[in-house]
Amino acid sequence: MSRILIVDDAVNSREALAKLLRSKGHETDTAKNGAEGLVRLKQHTPDLVLLDQMMPEVDGLTFLTGIRRFPRWKNLPVLLLTGVSDRTCLLRAQQLGVKDCLQKGEYTVPQLVQQIEKHVKPEPKPEPVTA
Fold first, then answer.
1. What is the DSSP letter of 101?
2. What residues does each domain of the chain span?
């Protein structure tokens, strides 16, 4: 089963994403900022990270810069969720290996799910046994 780490300071966004992804067959873990995300990452390496860019304490790009220094997380797929359209910031994210940058408020749920499943595949839910 695919494990996805959601790092976002907005509780409602974090929980809505977790619920959506669980309904699609993924396991989820959540963190409210990059510092907490690093703790979660050390506990269980996920198959993909959904990363908010603007957060208190440790923002998304600082988190990403930090984890890319470790060989085991160097190629970990990351999707950046951002409200910022700053070209320099987006270029920096791409240099750090972000698979895609999704503008908050501009993507649909099916688009998000498609981007996630492009990089990780959920395990199919078992068919109910009939007698």
1. E
2. 3-119
Task: Give the C-alpha separation, 53 to 8, whole Å.
Answer: 8
Say how far apart CA 53 and CA 9 lie, in whole Å. 10
H or E segment and range at residue 81: strand 78-82
Chain-centroid distance of CA 55 in Å reads 14
Residue-wise pLDDT for 73-112, tens only, equals 988 999 988 877 767 767 788 888 888 888 888 888 888 8
- The encoded tokens of residue 56 equal 């208190």
Pick the CATH number of 3-119 from 3.40.30.10, 3.40.50.2300, 3.30.1330.30, 3.30.70.20: 3.40.50.2300
Which residues in 83-107 are b (16+ Cβ under 10 Å) and which e?
A: ebeeeebbeebeebebbbbbeeeee
Residues 101 and 108: their CA atoms lie apart, in Å, by: 13
Inter-CA distances, 54 with 7, 24, 91, Å: 10, 26, 16
